[in-house]
């Protein structure tokens, strides 16, 4: 999607505003995440044991790893707001981990703008309904409602906002 202006954002509410590039979640990524988060449960880090002892047939990504990839997905999928000077992660209202992401799988994010609301003189909150799809799988990895803040110079705020 092309870049948009602050004045155009409200008109996008209720529409799918972007689909990210595919990201491969390989064992190296899973291991790095395990190291960074101190979560080295065998279903994530031990391919042989995970194959033998888990119902997944091998290792799976941490749910929080999949969730953390939303930042990268955001950059490849969402239109840039021309007046934005900074973007801030505000938080999640709901996250549901629906299906495991097996090592080697590819995932992508699908974003629908659920709400856009101006706050104060220089902020716009954008709330997205997000689905992280797993390539060639019927069920998504996760669904979430994610709110971000677009910071901008107050002089750029639309008059009708």
TrEMBL record:
InterPro entries: HotDog_dom_sf, MaoC-like_dom, NodN-like. Residues 12-119 form the MaoC-like domain. PANTHER family: MAOC-LIKE DEHYDRATASE DOMAIN-CONTAINING PROTEIN (PTHR42993:SF1). This is MaoC family dehydratase. It comes from Agrobacterium cavarae.
């Amino acid at each position: 999607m092309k870049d948009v202006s602050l004045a155009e954002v409200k008109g996008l509410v209720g529409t799918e505003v972007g689909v990210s590039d595919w990201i491969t979640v390989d064992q190296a990524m899973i291991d790095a995440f395990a190291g960074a988060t101190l979560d080295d449960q065998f279903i994530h880090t031990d391919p042989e044991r995970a194959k033998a002892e888990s119902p997944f047939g091998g290792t799976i990504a941490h749910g929080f790893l999949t969730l953390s990839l939303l930042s990268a997905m955001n950059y490849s999928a969402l239109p840039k707001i021309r007046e934005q000077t900074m973007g801030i992660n505000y938080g999640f209202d709901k996250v549901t981990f629906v299906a495991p992401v097996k090592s080697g799988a590819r995932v992508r994010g699908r974003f629908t703008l659920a709400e856009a609301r101006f706050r104060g003189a220089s902020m716009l909150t954008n709330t997205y309904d997000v689905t992280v799809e797993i390539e060639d799988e019927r069920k998504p990895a996760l669904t979430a409602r994610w709110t971000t803040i677009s910071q901008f110079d107050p002089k750029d705020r639309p008059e009708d906002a």
